[in-house]
Specification:
The structure holds two protein chains of two kinds. Chain A is built from 13 helices and one strand; from the N terminus they run E-H-H-H-H-H-H-H-H-H-H-H-H-H. Chain A is mainly α. Mean pLDDT of chain B is 90; it is low at 1-9. Chains A and B meet through strand 1, helix 3, helix 5 and helix 13 of A and helix 2, helix 4, helix 7, strand 2 and strand 6 of B. Strand 1 of chain A pairs parallel with strand 2 of chain B, so a sheet runs across the interface.
Amino acid sequence: MGLVKRAKEDQAAPSKPHIRKYGRDLQGLLAQLHDDQVKARRWAARDLAAHPEAVSALCERLRVEPDPTVREALFGSLLAIGTEAVVEGLIPLLRGEDAGLRNGAVEVLRQLPDAVGHRIAALLADPDPDVRIFAVDILRDLAHPQAPGWLLAVVESDEHVNVVTTAIDRLAEVGTPDMAPAIQAVKDRFPNEPFVGFAVDTALKRVLGDG
Amino acid sequence: MGHSGVARESAPEVRITDAEFERFRDYFYRKTGIRFEDSKRYFVDKRLIQRMHQTGHESFREYFAFMRFQASGKEFQELVNLMTVNETYFFREEYQLKCMVNALLGEVLHHQRPGETVRIWSVPCSTGEEPYSIALYLLEFWDRIDEVDVEIVASDIDTQALEKARAGVFSRRSVNHLPRWILEKYFEPLAGGYHRLCEDLRTCVDFRRINLCDPKDTRGMRDFDIIFCRNLLIYFDEASQRQAAETLYDALKPGGFVLLGHSESMSRITSLFKVRRFEDAIVYQRSI
């Protein structure tokens, strides 16, 4: 007993040899994505990261996949693929009831600035205020030069107080002094919402640089 | 003001205001989990000003917008590299080694079949200080080492580092934190203040070249009980962090543990792992 080393010939192979039920090509992996075993579905989800043409299958699987570890792998592969097709496939999840899926979609979308940029304006104009809040959440970490401008437009024109205060919170980090009047004006737009004043004052301190 | 020499020599003097420091501190914390106390203000300001000059920005506001909205994230990574100190030496972050022998191995054995080998992976192992520290700790501070087989696999992407690791020759600085009796028991002194690790220990660690981000390299890495992955993920972009976390998860047995560097947090990367708070350290666990 003590410190041991595995024989060289065993190192390259996985610890437990197994017979493959599916091929490792696209068709095999797509079939494996619906296997009964969680482990098999996770590996299929991970390996499909190498297949951009699997985006729709990965997104469809997200809607029905019950296991959180497989969901993580699905989101991870979609992020690795990172195309506009991924953005199109994930946006519908923002309207769903499943908070885990919504948050997962936001997490991936905010890391795809090039692919998601041209969809932001439409998301911020969505009739559902929850979707608009998710769009603001995406902007929080979106490495896109237009992000402050989009947030300012929300602060200036959105009619839902929760959407506006979420945007103000994000502007506290990325806003510039010239945005201060627009932020200040929110107090007048929502005079009966006591928490608006606090959000505005906090953001102004940061934006004007005296906080 | 007394900021860095870089500031005075190469450009007009730049000052980071309190509000700008706060803004940067909050952003950096949200992105990395590293929070700078007020006492680190000089350290942070100096590096920010250095990067501002090197990227041609004269105000913090301009630089912050540049860094914050750069699609490639390269400038943010430059800052991470500057703001973190990456060095390796024996018994670094020893509290995690204590946690391994005091708590983790007990749980591992509880779920093992009798006679099963305990498997530990050190990634990235750099020049070998970490995997050899694990080996030393097991031999000297774990009372069940005579009853159980333990396999230590150590990997790095850098083949030169692996060669040095296999050679097992370390500078005085590398072994500085080792108790003297361990140094005398396991190392042979060489000229120039260097020390060579004894052959028995050098041959008991299995060094391999592995790129953690390459599925071809990592596919065979399975069934580990404990993984030390310290001060690596912080240097990855978010997509790579996520992929690496998936790889670590699949490399572990159910119930296996991951130890990260003190400034890293798995919870910021993925929800795959459960956070476990032990007396000596916080560790991430794959569900049983």
